[in-house]
TrEMBL record:
Biological-process GO terms, alphabetical: DNA damage response; methylation
Domain writeup: Subfamily III proteins have a conserved RTxK motif about 40-50 residues from the C-terminus; the threonine may be replaced by serine or cysteine.
Cofactor: Mn(2+); Ni(2+)
This protein's UniProt keywords: Hydrolase, Manganese, Metal-binding, Methyltransferase, Transferase
Methyltransferase listed as a keyword: yes
SUPFAM superfamilies: AF1104-like
Domain Damage-control phosphatase ARMT1-like metal-binding as annotated: residue spans: 20-426
Gene3D superfamilies reported for this sequence: 1.20.930.60, Uncharacterised protein PF01937, DUF89, domain 3
Protein name in UniProt: Sugar phosphate phosphatase
Length: 457
């Protein structure tokens, strides 16, 4: 067997890693600091919280200083690991490296996860701040700016749901397949609204990425599409036994599209249960935590934010709440999703950080739908695979896990597999012709997407 390629590096000027470490991270962390400062300034009477807030600001300033000095990545201390045991996974991974990494020189995926965990532990060390989500305001503000796409999808869902009720469970396979494709598409492009990329996005920017028209324009940009295989798998399990799992990505608009997909599946009686897998902490700016579900309901109910199409919005909220209450729709979380490991460790071997538990749980799943860019990087270990590598090869051990994986991802990083011969060269040329210096960066522009499936055996 030939050796697997190495992982993308922060020092590689042809990789999106390069600009991420040098521009994107400082912007994100500075924004995070501003958020904490504003929160502190809005407090009155809780002196302890304010005092502790100042310690957090010092911690964040220190990260920014370390960025500037290209400081080394230190291991998490025993005290930090005692407070949050899954931090140990980072030390384990750091130990496998030949050279001590720095903020500008080291493996992209590992150091990026490390950054969000460092920020998290700086906050969690302060007793008054353990429940604080540093990205919550950003997540909710972006959702508020998504009214156009929200209305459109709520209207679509209500019309469909009423049609399905009239059919009384007699949806033929042909129609079911078309609708399945439609909701895969909605959920896929829901991933294009990404706060870590749209830090300075205007309302128009956000709108231009959402809705039916935007999706129609983008359909030719799906460069690997295994949907037919995934549908075959779906049909191979009797409807009354089907369970779908979503390994979630972003809160806000993307989460809303994942919920719309879920509602369609449950209303059409195409599945029995759906479980959403969330993060246990703030992560990569926009990722979904369990508590974000409650905020989502609150925000959908906000008549000042969303004054129009109330009937459709209320219908959406009532429908999902009903399934949440009767247990057909569940929310779960695990430390595994934010530990240092890529998903080759989603296996019985990881009995420490949740990998083994998830592995077991996914054995009974009809499809595990893995959303978004970061999750895709973890699936493929963020390695420099030739782009014609098959998805299964890039999954390594996960390709033999008996887990049926369907990745829905808009490409926002360098790694991408499953492409036909010659396409990559074409895309590089095309990207250069559009005036971009590094042709390879087509792959992190968010304009292309993949729908990749592995049967797990
Ligand atoms: O996973 P998501 O929300 O689709 O995208 C997250 C993202 O914007 O931030 C990550 C870290 O830089 C990148 O993998 C990706 O570009
Ligand atoms: Mg994300
Ligand atoms: Mn394929």
């Amino acid at each position: 067997m030939s050796a697997v390629p190495g992982v993308y590096q922060l020092s590689d000027p042809k990789s999106f890693a390069f600009a991420t470490a040098r521009k994107r991270w400082p912007t994100i962390i500075t924004q995070a600091k501003d958020t904490v400062e504003a929160y502190i300034n809005a407090q009155s009477g809780n002196d302890k919280l304010v005092e502790q807030g100042k310690v957090i600001i010092d911690g964040i300033d220190n990260i920014l200083l370390e960025f500037n000095n290209n400081g080394i990545i230190r291991k998490f201390t025993e005290e930090e690991i005692k407070l949050i045991p899954s931090l140990e996974s980072y030390n384990i991974e750091l130990d496998t490296l030949e050279k001590t990494p720095t903020w500008l020189n080291g493996p992209w995926l590992l150091i990026e996860g490390y950054l969000y965990r460092l920020l998290d532990v700086i906050i969690k060390r302060q007793s008054e701040w353990t429940k604080y989500d540093i990205f919550e305001i950003l997540k909710r503000d972006a959702f508020k700016s998504s009214a156009f796409g929200i209305y459109e999808l709520a209207i679509r869902y209500k019309t469909l749901s009423e049609e399905l009720k009239n059919l009384n469970g007699k949806l033929d396979n042909e129609k079911a397949k078309l609708l399945f494709e439609e909701f895969v598409d909605i959920s896929l492009w829901g991933n294009a609204t990404d706060l870590s990329l749209l830090a300075n996005a205007t309302l128009e920017d956000i709108q231009s990425r959402q809705g039916k028209e935007a999706r129609a324009k983008s359909s030719k940009n799906i460069i690997d599409n295994d949907l037919p295989e995934a549908w075959e798998r779906f049909l191979s399990v009797p409807a009354e036994e089907r369970r779908i799992d979503f390994v979630l990505d972003n809160a806000g608009f993307e989460f809303y599209t994942d919920l719309a997909f879920t509602l369609f599946l449950l209303d059409a009686k195409l599945v029995k249960n759906v479980t959403f897998h969330c993060k246990t902490r703030p992560w990569m700016v926009s990722d979904t935590m369990i508590k974000d579900y409650k905020l989502f309901i609150e925000d959908m109910n906000n008549k000042e934010w969303f004054p129009d199409h109330r009937e459709d919005l209320d219908y959406f909220v009532n429908s999902i709440e009903k399934y949440h209450q009767n247990g057909q729709f569940k929310l779960a979380d695990s430390e595994f999703w934010t530990c240092a490991y890529d998903y080759t460790k989603l296996s019985p071997a990881d009995d420490k950080f949740g990998g083994a538990e998830l592995y077991k749980y996914f054995q009974d799943s009809t499809l595990v739908i893995v959303k978004g860019d970061l999750n895709y990087r973890k699936l493929t270990s963020d390695r420099e695979w030739p782009k014609t590598t098959s998805f299964k090869t890039a999954l390594e051990s996960l390709a033999h896990s008996n887990i049926h994986i369907l990745a829905l991802r808009t490409c926002k990083a360098d790694v991408c597999v499953g492409l036909p011969e010659g396409l990559e060269e074409e895309l590089i040329e095309n990207w250069k012709k559009l005036g971009n210096e590094v042709g390879e960066l087509w792959c992190s522009s968010g304009k292309w997407a993949v729908i990749s499936y592995s049967s797990g055996n």
